[in-house]
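HUMAN: Now follow token order:
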Amino acid sequence: MEKQITIEEAKSKFSRCREVYKILIGDTEHQVWDIDGYEHDYGKWNNETPTYWIEMEGGILDPFICRGVHRICWEINFKQSNYTKHKWGSTDIRRNGTCVIKANGRMVYSFGACDLGFAMSKAQYYVTLISEHPYDFFNPEKEKGRRIWYYNLPATIEPSEYDPGNIRIRPDYIGEFKGKKNQWKWWKEYYERSRYKGLGDMESHDGEHLEEARDIGWINHGDALHDGNITWFRDEEKKETKEESQSLSVAE
């Protein structure tokens, strides 16, 4: 094999150096690269991609084959606890529990559970769900500004800085919502589409909360897995506003 080179040398020598993913070795993440025109024999001998290289200490590139490697190193931490609640002059002692899921050493999700067996079963389910979900729980910073439909309204998302797996929704004022005087239409449509009436005609949110959300400019959606009203893929080239839809209907 040729003399080892660094990733910086590879970038100056080869036209395409693409980040593939990161793996955890010990407690340190290492970047795997796909470098066109730079191949190693280990990949050819093992019937794997010969252009995959892993960046080690000092930026040195070593041949990488994924056979026998954990693509993601999962860590499940579950902690049970008790807490007190004072009510009507007496003290109640109640149970609690929190399960934290980490991927490659980074917290990606958490949930509450009291029973150990239930928590482990649920964690296994969430590991699969997170791995297959369109939202990137592993790199949430890349999701900032992602274009979505929220209640079929154009919007973007913003990952929470404090609660991994939680998101905020920001309106995307395009089409009929473009311009400051038309922005209120987005919020009116959101209110009409998202409210519901249950027992006693109690609505899910009121006008006061709507005004508060509009003033700060975003909606605290919460858990990204609770996405029944989110369409994650919004094709800008095929974007169709409500106004355009109405025009098409009239033309027909």
Remarks:
- Residues 197-203, 241-252 have pLDDT under 50 and may be disordered.
